[in-house]
Amino acid sequence: MNKQTTPTLLDEVVNRREAPALKVHPSVLGEQNEDLFAAGVADMDFKIPSVILDHLGKRLAHGIFGYEAVPDDLFPVLTRWLAERHGWVVNERDILRAPNILNALAIAANLFSEEGDGVVVQPPVFFDFFDIIRENNRELITNPLSLENGHYRMDFADLENKTSDPRVKIIYLCNPHNPVGRVWGFDELKTLGDICQRNGVLVVSDEMHGDLVYSGHKYIPFASLGTDYSRNCITCLSPAKTFNIASCCCAFTVVADDAMRQAFQTENSRLTVNKNNAFSSVAMQAAYSYGSDWLDNVMNYLENNVALVKRYLHDISEVRLIEPEGTFLLWLDFRELNLPPDDLIEFLREKAKWAITRGHAFGEEGNGFVRLNIACTSKKLEDALQNLELAVKHLGE
Question: How confident is the model at residue 7 (pLDDT cuts 50, 70, 90)?
Fold first, then answer.
């Protein structure tokens, strides 16, 4: 990993408060808390690729924003991105638009399970999974990840046991995994897929972080394992995280099975969530067409930020980093501080000036952990790490 020595465009400080950014909004930080290190909400502090801004500017200059069809080139640039970047060949007919990934997860639960049926999650995992399951009157079934020597693994024996219950119909897979940063390998995905096929459980895979993978690791789309796997899968994709366009972006589902895809398409129509947004289409098309170099630079910057965190935590022995394989979200282990979850968050907020995502939001398996967003300038991250170092040093005084 090369140490970053010269400033880049990603070092530019952007005042997020010039827009109603959720990361720094009073609803998240509280009132009068501009001194906090806002590292909870999962977006980047980096400006989007200039080519996306250029294309948005051209579309804005057109001056007419009536109803529009999906651009003819949108699906081809998406399939080309998936093929060239990840080696996954997707048929355009299998792609459907969705407002966002969470919407797609909720639709899948309602289409392919009944109220009271079980939906499996693998905590600690993205907290909105829990809300979707509960709010749609499904039963939450947990298949907790196992932390072994600082490395998270799936518990396949437990998964086999849980999915053997005929009431369990779906598993929400997070690939790569938020928040623990695992980029699941071929054998892991295949074993999960085989268990689900044996037990008639549909894999609904959130793969939003698939483009954000560190060197030495490779994102493997679950549906790319083979025909049997793709036909028992709904893949949820979005460039929102990759290119920092969450607020102007839609998502995609890839559904290879004809009957499931038709059901999804019918439900999209029934809910009228199949309309086109001109700006999201332009942003996505430009991102997938021209954003590769920008993304490579971002990943290099993030790897340097990971190295920065490691350097500081070497001297903060009470805090351990779970080695990330992907995403710009780090999973930090604070259990050696022996603080109850609420006390840990208060300590970080009041003493270290950190506003991060509490670990127990991702399930009870997250107690003693926090999720840290490192998609910010290295200077801001280093200042925050210095504050943490001092706070831990003086804890208990």
Answer: low
